[in-house]
Write a structure and sequence with these properties.
Largest sheet: none
Distance between the termini: 45 Å
Helix content: over 70%
Order of helices and strands: HHHHHHH
Number of strands: 0
Shape: globular
Length: about 160
């Protein structure tokens, strides 16, 4: 894929994810949490394509390898963070916590793959890290998170 075609594809993907996140935010405001989860499932399918069934079952590093593109991994992490919030609103706290951990680990994978917009990835990592104790992360991600924190990102919550 030529650089121009890749850039066009990434811009379309980002625009689609923004639309999906706006739709989910609206459904959350309206209290339509089941519909918000349906919209998220649709967004996962659009974003991950054929990997949508397999990638969620894999460890984050392998899933990121399957998904491949750092921007797509970051977008997936954003969607997972949004799903965590919907699950929290539904009273599914343990599911929400697990989704936040997964989202943070995937955001760190996007960082490791040098996503096209590092500031957006770092913002996502910081937002998720504020809700996930470091001890919940797989050991390989802890030094990556510490490195980002050393660069000035907010500290994660204490357990």
């Amino acid at each position: 894929m030529s650089p121009s075609a890749r850039d066009d594809y990434l811009m379309r993907m980002i625009a689609e994810m923004v639309q999906a996140l706006m739709r989910v935010a609206g459904l959350k405001r309206e209290g339509k949490l089941d519909e918000a989860l349906d919209a998220l499932r649709d967004a996962y399918g659009e974003l991950l394509g054929p990997a949508a069934e397999l990638a969620p079952r894999l460890d984050p590093a392998t899933a990121a390898q399957v998904v491949g593109n750092a921007e797509r991994i970051r977008a997936w992490a954003q969607l997972l963070g949004e799903e965590a919030e919907v699950r929290r609103l539904r009273g599914e706290d343990s599911a929400a916590d697990a989704l936040r951990v997964r989202a943070l680990e995937l955001a760190l994978e996007a960082h490791l793959r040098r996503a096209g917009e590092p500031a957006r990835t770092h913002e996502l990592v910081a937002a998720l890290a504020a809700e996930v104790p470091e001890e919940r992360l797989a050991g390989a991600y802890r030094p990556v998170l510490r490195d980002l924190l050393a660069r000035g990102a907010p500290r994660p919550v204490e357990p």
